[in-house]
Design brief:
This protein is mainly alpha-helical and 106 residues long. It has one domain. The chain is built from four helices and two strands; from the N terminus they run E-H-H-H-E-H. It has a two-stranded antiparallel sheet. Helix 2 runs antiparallel to helix 4 and helix 3 runs antiparallel to helix 4. The longest helix has 14 residues. The mean pLDDT is 84.
Length: 106
């Protein structure tokens, strides 16, 4: 694992892309955790061998829904970062965010 900073917007964008690509109806906390690991480690997305192949361009007009709890989390952190879409999270902040995401998944 690297200690490279990541942007909050990249975490949520990647999580939504993972959810869309896998055909999930809802963005789950696990999608956010997977996005963080993808961004921090630079590892490729891992999908089950029997997963349907989806277009990288997305589904026809459908997008995975984002539950209120994840929207609230995003807004709280965005505000914490002074509404700067380019703000980066350092290693300590990423671990704190991961803890909050894991709590949502319980």
């Amino acid at each position: 694992m690297t200690s490279e900073p990541v942007r909050l917007t990249d975490i949520f964008t990647n999580a939504a892309a993972i959810a869309d690509y896998t055909g999930a109806a809802v963005v789950e906390p696990g999608h956010l955790l997977e996005a963080i690991e993808h961004l921090r480690e630079g590892r490729p997305w891992q999908f089950a061998e029997d997963a349907p192949v989806r277009s990288p361009l997305g589904r026809s007009g459908q997008r995975a829904a984002v539950p209120a709890a994840l929207r609230d989390l995003a807004q709280r952190w965005f505000k914490r970062l002074e509404s700067d879409p380019l703000a980066e999270l350092g290693p300590v902040e990423v671990e704190e965010l991961k803890g909050e995401i894991e709590n949502l998944g319980r």
